[in-house]
Amino acid sequence: DKVLAELIEPYEVRAAKLREFLEDVKPSLRYDIVPLVDPYGPSVTDPDLQCLVVSEETRRGGEAVNKKRLENGLPELALYEILLMKDPEHSQNEEEKISSSSLRQRLLGTLLRPPRQDPTLPLRPYVIGLTGGTGSGKTSIAKLLGHLGAFLIDADKLGHAVYVPGGPAYEQVVAAFGAEIVNEDGTINRQVLGAKVFGNQEQLKRLTDIVWPEMARMVKEQIREADAQG
What we know:
By secondary structure, this protein is mostly helical. The protein is 42% helix and 4% strand. Strands 1-2 form a two-stranded parallel ribbon. The two termini are 42 Å apart.
C-alpha cells in the first residue's frame, strides 16, 4: 500500500545508498544489510540481536516483533525510539516527516529515463494510453494533454457507441444475449445486459469478444484521423 510503489527504487540501489550512509556515519561500523521478504525479517529469528530502532509510528511493529520473538523462544529486544525529522518543504498533500513517499510524489511528471528509440515504431502518431480506476485522474490528465495539442480518444464514449442501434456491435450483442436486453426505443438496456454478464466470466468473455475488437477498430480509425490532421 505504498504511495506510487512503481517509483520505489530497486533493492540494489536502496542497499547501495544505505551502505554509503552507514560508511559516512562510521566507517568502522559492522553491519549486515538483509533483504526483507516478510514483515519481520531476521528480527524474529536472530538470537544475537539485542535492540531494535523504531520511530513513534513503527513502535507497534517493534512490539509485534517482540511478541513473535517470545513465541519463538527468544528474548525480547530493547526498543529504542527515535524522532523522525520534519520536512520543512513538505506540501499540504505530503507527509510531515521526511519521506520517500513524498519524494516519489515529486517525481511525477519527471522523465525517469531517456525515451527508447525503437526503429520498428513510427515517429507519428505517438499514442499514449491512460488507464486507472475511477477517480484516479484520467480525465484531468487527458484535458492537460488536450490543451497541449493532443488528439483525445475517449474509450468510454467508444464503448457506448458500439452498442447504439446501427453501431458495429449492436446486432451481434442482441443476437447473443436476446431481445430482452432491448428497450422499447430499440436501444440496449445496459443494466439488463450488465446483470447477465457481471459475475459470470463465460458470459462476460462472450460480450467482450464481440465489443472489444470493434472498439479497437474504432480507436485505430481515430488514430488514423489524428495522423491525417498532423
